[in-house]
Amino acid sequence: MRILIFLIMLNLAISAGAQEEKAVFVYNDNGNRDPLLQLVSKNGVINNYDTDFLITDLTLEGIIAGTGEGNFAIINGQIVKVNDKVGKYFISNIDSSAVYLSNGQETHILQLKKGE
C-alpha cells in the first residue's frame, strides 16, 4: 500500500514539474548595440550588424575583376561576391564597372565613380 501511495505521489510530482513553463531571458538592447558582439572579426574585417541599409547608404569603393565568377566588390569597406548579402540586398552580379543588388522586388546598380 505504501508503495502504491509513493508511486502516485511520484507521478503527481513529475507531471507537475513537466507542466511548469521555464522563463526565457530576452535581452532588451533599448536600441543600442549588444556590448558582447565583436566589432572586428578574427580576420581583421569590421563587423557590421546593421541590416537596415537604404540603397543610398551603400558605397561601391572598388571592384576586383577576375575570370569567370571570380569577381569581388568592396561595398562600405566589406569585400563581397555574388550571392552575398549586404543589409537587405543580395549581390546578383558583379561586372568590371558595376555591382547589381536585388532585394527580391527591385534591382539596383552601384557604379564606380570616374577616377576610382
Give a written overview of the molecule:
This protein has a domain at 55-111. It has a 4-stranded antiparallel sheet, with no helix packed on it. A 3-stranded antiparallel sheet has the order 1-2-3, with no helix packed on it. It has one helix at residues 2-19, and strands at residues 60-64, 72-75, 78-81, 85-86, 89-94, 98-102, 107-111. The mean pLDDT is 79. The termini are far apart. 16% of the residues lie in helices and 27% in strands. It has 116 residues and is α+β, with helices and mostly antiparallel strands. It is built from 1 helix and 7 strands.
Write the layout of secondary structure elements.
Layout: H1 2-19, E1 60-64, E2 72-75, E3 78-81, E4 85-86, E5 89-94, E6 98-102, E7 107-111
Antiparallel strand pairs: 1-2, 2-3, 4-5, 5-6, 6-7
- Rg over alpha carbons: 26 Å
Summed over residues and divided by their number, the pLDDT gives a mean of: 79
> pLDDT below 50 for ≥5 consecutive residues: which ranges?
none
| Order of helical and strand elements | HEEEEEEE
Neighbour order of strands in the largest sheet: 4-5-6-7
What is the count of helical runs? 1
Structural class: alpha+beta
Relative strand content: 25-35%
